[in-house]
Amino acid sequence: MSTLLTLEDQIFNELALEKQAEEQSDIKPFNRFSQIERKKAQEISVATEIPVDQVEAERAAGDPVSETAAKTNAVNFDYALTIDQAYNDGVSAEDLAEIIQERKAKGDDMTLSEYFLIQNLMLSDNGVNAYAARTMTNMEIWNNLMQEALE
C-alpha cells in the first residue's frame, strides 16, 4: 500500500530534481554541417584572423578560445587612439564626445553570450546608432533561430 509523501520527502525530491537539472548542460552538440555553425566559424575567423579550419576544429572540440578572443577584441576598444585620430582630423570635442558616447551605448547593448560579427562592424561605424545596431542584432538572432528550425 502506498502512502502520501511527507513535506520533507517532497522537498527532498524537488531539491534532487533541481540538482539533476542543473547538472545537465544546455550545450547543443556541434553539427559540422549546420549553416549556422559554418557562418559562426567564418565570422570568428574574420574577427580573429585565425584560419576557418582551426576555428571549426576548436568549436567541434568544445574549445571556446577563438570565440572568446573575438568577443574580447570587440570589447577592448582603445579610446585614446580614437581621441588622437579625431584630434588629428580636426573633430570638435563635442562631436568626439557624442561619437564616443554612441559607441559606448552600442557596446553596452552587445550580447556577450554569443559572438556576432555584425555587432562588431556596427560598433566601429559611427553612422549606425544604438537602436539600429540592436535591431540588426535581433534580426541576426531571428535568422539563426529560423535557420535552426529548418535544419
Give a description of the structure.
The chain is an all-alpha fold. The chain has one domain. 71% of the residues lie in helices and 0% in strands. It has 8 helices and no strands. Helix 7 (117-123) runs antiparallel to helix 8. The longest helix has 21 residues, at 130-150. The model has no long low-confidence stretch (mean pLDDT 78).
Question: Quick gist of this model?
Answer:
This protein is mainly alpha-helical. It has helices at residues 7-23, 35-48, 52-61, 65-75, 79-89, 93-108, 117-123, 130-150.
* Termini Cα gap: 49 Å
How many separate helices? Answer: 8
Instruction: Determine the strand fraction and express it as a percent band.
Output: under 5%
Oligomer: single chain
Radius of gyration: 22 Å
Shape: elongated
How would a textbook summarize the main sheet?
none
List the helices and strands in order: HHHHHHHH
Average pLDDT number: 78
Low-confidence stretches: none
- Summing up helix and strand content along with how strands pair, one would put the structural category as mainly alpha
Residue share in helices? Answer: over 70%
Number of domain units? 1
Q: How many strands?
A: 0
Topology readout:
Layout: H1 7-23, H2 35-48, H3 52-61, H4 65-75, H5 79-89, H6 93-108, H7 117-123, H8 130-150
List the main descriptive attributes of the protein structure presented here.
0% strand, mainly alpha, 8 helices, 151 residues, single chain
